[in-house]
Amino acid sequence: MNPTYDFKGQVALVTGAAMGMGLATARAFAQSGASVVLADRDGDRVAKEVAKIVEEGGIAIGVACDVSNEAQVAALIERTVAEYGRLDMAFNNAGVMARLAPTADATSEEFDRVIGINLRGVWNCMKYELQQMQRQGSGAIVNNASVGALTGNPGIGAYIASKHGVVGLTRTAGLEYAKRGIRVNAVNPGTIDTQIARDVVGGSEQAFAELEKGAPIGRAGRPEEIAAAVLWLCSSAASYVLGEALTVDGGLTVQ
User: Fold this and answer.
1) Superfamily of 11-250 according to CATH
2) Has this prediction a pTM greater than 0.85?
3) Which sequence positions are flagged as catalytic?
4) Which controlled-vocabulary keywords does the entry list (predicted)?
């Protein structure tokens, strides 16, 4: 059983919120009483998920946003504050996987695409989230990195580079804003049962089952398990946790 939090009166923003870890986290925030802004490139899909949250008694809006576009991110934060008056918590989750190719064979276009969303996108979000949180004098940000931030992985160099960068940004911003009432942390998910993880193995159930066996716990993680870590990092229970990249991987990286 997950711990419960009372986020009533607080406002949470989740990017990449139309599915997977982002959607699970947005739903968890809403179930804990927060007003939630779900942002995603797929505006139609996120609107459907918002409707479900509202139908269940939650408070939420959806915003179409490409996090690699700084102007769209600035507008996202402006819309959040216009709607709810503040921003207390943010989960910068939006990300993509690199197309499989050795470093020398990868294209510059593919590198720019992955870095633009996974790293520049996190920087864009943090920039405007931090500006708002500074005005308030409080806030908590969690960035979605990866166990790929801790090691290398042949064939997905741009993805690995982007996630190493996310952890570096997290640690630096954590130091910069520690005395301004803002905590910045990250999570490093392992193999999580999401569409992006299944896409890595071409949608093969057999290949995904083999991937799951790589974790000592013997299974893939659930999006809700990442959501639980994010909510904890945003809560007062983690008030002394700062600049941390919390690994949630079923033991994968301790082998």
Assistant:
1) NAD(P)-binding Rossmann-like Domain (3.40.50.720)
2) yes
3) 159
4) Oxidoreductase
